[in-house]
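Good morning,

Attaching, inline, the backbone tokens for the sequence recovery test we're adding to the shared suite. The designed sequence is right after.
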């Protein structure tokens, strides 16, 4: 069977699809991946045959994909939530398609079209990587869902020195993702975490590390770290509330301090904090002292236990969700749907 995956050309939208695409490849299916060139390197490294459809660089529109559907003649198109154009192109071509989520169903008003309101492909099922306890209640009640365990993906790289060493100091991981980080916010967060008795690893993302100035000895700053490999060693994750980092931390049972900045991050912060697995600081509440206080609270033996237990409960829920290999075996069923 030939399967075409399609996503926006960004880490947050492409990486959640890679585990299922790799599992489909391993199941013997011929896999192709339509996306802008910015994410081609990790796709090619996994043998997923990436290509840039039409004039697409970030977004992919129906007219970009339609000639490629005629060329490839896939049996199934797996299109992520950020690409309604791919759903439209597959519908017009008469090719079965499946939506693929990147986390919790996002709210209106963040610049993306809600896939549940797509009138061109209203009945297509959704591959849902969000644990049901955190998923939007309306989406759970109305959508045709295919549960899939969220599997964090990172391009291979060495972890910072000492991360794997067993020491008496806990490890705090700080990231603001690849789209919303600013030098000002990172500097504030580092100043706060410098007050905490912990080792700190910072992924600076789009902020050049030299803009962060001199950092204390117990703080390690890298432009990028292999997050999926680092998270199992973390005791607390301080981050922006992006879906990938949120689910990655939950999958390994790590409590979080969330500093939402935009997009779906506020909704993610609300859901995870309501579940007891995170503390939240809104933009007007963010200071170095507040970040230090919230992080110390999660690291504390008394105050942090409740949040660690909540995070571990969600980790257990995630572990019970179907693995990518299991969902990949079912792809022919969805290709048979018309």
């Amino acid at each position: 069977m030939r399967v075409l995956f399609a996503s926006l050309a960004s880490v947050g939208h492409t990486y959640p699809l890679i585990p299922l695409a790799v599992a489909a490849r391993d199941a013997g299916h011929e896999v192709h991946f339509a996306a802008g060139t910015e994410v081609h390197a990790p796709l090619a490294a996994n043998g997923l045959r990436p290509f840039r459809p039409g004039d697409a660089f970030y977004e992919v529109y129906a007219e970009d994909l339609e000639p490629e559907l005629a060329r490839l003649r896939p049996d199934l198109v797996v299109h992520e939530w950020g690409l309604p154009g791919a759903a439209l192109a597959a519908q017009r071509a008469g090719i079965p398609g499946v939506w693929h989520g990147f986390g919790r169903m996002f709210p209106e008003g963040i610049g993306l079209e809600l896939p549940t309101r797509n009138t061109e492909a209203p009945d297509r099922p959704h591959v849902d990587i969000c644990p049901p306890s955190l998923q939007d209640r309306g989406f759970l009640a109305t959508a045709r869902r295919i549960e899939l365990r969220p599997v964090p993906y990172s391009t291979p790289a060495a972890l910072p020195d000492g991360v794997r060493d067993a020491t008496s100091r806990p490890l705090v991981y700080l990231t603001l993702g690849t789209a919303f980080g600013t030098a000002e916010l990172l500097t504030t967060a580092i100043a706060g975490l410098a007050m905490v008795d912990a080792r700190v690893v910072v992924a600076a993302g789009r902020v050049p590390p030299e803009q962060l100035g001199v950092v204390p000895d117990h703080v390690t700053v890298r432009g990028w770290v292999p997050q999926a490999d680092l998270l199992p060693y973390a005791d607390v994750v301080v981050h922006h509330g992006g879906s990938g980092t949120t689910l990655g931390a939950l999958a390994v049972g790590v409590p979080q301090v969330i500093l939402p900045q935009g997009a779906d991050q506020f909704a993610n912060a609300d859901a995870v904090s309501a579940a007891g697995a995170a503390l939240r600081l809104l933009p007007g509440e963010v200071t170095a002292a507040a970040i230090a206080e919230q992080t110390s609270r999660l690291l504390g033996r008394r105050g942090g236990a409740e949040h660690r237990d909540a995070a571990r409960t969600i980790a257990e829920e995630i572990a019970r969700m179907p693995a990518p290999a299991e969902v990949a075996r079912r792809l022919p069923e969805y290709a048979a749907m018309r």
